[in-house]
Amino acid sequence: MGKSPAVVFDPFDAQQLIDPYPGYRWLRDNAPMHYLEEDDLWVVSRYDHCLELLRDPTTFSSKRGVGRLMSGALGRRHSNTIEPLQFLSELRVLIAIDPPDHVRLRRLVNRPFTPREVGAHESWIRPTCEGSFRGLLDAGAEGGADWVKDFTWPFPVTVIGRLLGIPASLSADFKRWSDDLVGMVGGFNTDIEPKMASFMEMFTFFDEAIARRRSEPTDDLIGMLIHNAEADDEPLAADELVLFCVLLLAAGNETTTNLLSNAMRILTSMPDLLAELQSDPGLIPAFVEEVLRYDGPVQALPRGTTKPTTIAGVTIPADSSVLVYFGSANRDERRFPDPDRFEVERNPADHIGFGSGIHLCLGAPLARLEARIALETLCHQVTQIELADAPVPTEGPLLRGAISMPVRIRAA
Ligand code: HEM
Question: Dihedral of CA 143/147/148/154: which sign?
Answer without folding.
Answer: positive
